[in-house]
Amino acid sequence: MVEHTIRAFDTDLHQLAGKIAEMGHLDVEQIGDAIEALIKPDATLARRVIVKDNSVDDLQREIEEKAVATIARRQPMAVDLREIVGALRISNDLERVGDLAKNIAKRALVLTSERPINEVVLQLQHMVDLVRDRLAHVLQSYEHRDAAAALNIWRKDQEIEALTTGLFRELLTFMMEDPRSITFCMHMLFCAKNIERIADHITNIAETIYYMVEGHLVMEERPKGDDVTGREFLPMA
User: pTM for the full model?
Assistant: First the structure.
């Protein structure tokens, strides 16, 4: 981050970056707790995730207020303006990640009486491990303003989508073979879609970091796999 002759401006920018880091680490924790609540199942932990989402929302509002006030006071240009606009965009994606983790926790509450299918649960856990690791790395690339690392994360966008597609096919097989599994499998499909969308927001963050550092958008076409699950499956509100 560029050092400025007006130290108060540096303080503003560092405070924004600090709140982004805090928000991101909360999201990493929320995603892990949501899947743990789903797998155990643990209704108490699921409710804790749902309530804790308010902290993520509060941080986003603080970032918006700080960013607007900084723009009004400092009238930044070029890289400084990109820093502030980037923080706004990243906080919006992180807020959505928190919402999606909350959606998984809501599914956990519904599924406390359902008999789990171990193969499905293991695949869902693998997907969550991947997105948590990717979120942690994208936060590191934001902290260090590492455009190359952000671009590397951006290029992996299709991996989670491919896993979602594979899990969707397996869930269909389970439902056809045993109609008693339909409720569980449908909720797992929604959870998988939530995880896939978390990955999409992480890709958005990586794209924003690249823009903040380089001053232009990624010139490559965003990689995408086949999505046989369909975008009509919406997360639980």
Answer: 0.89
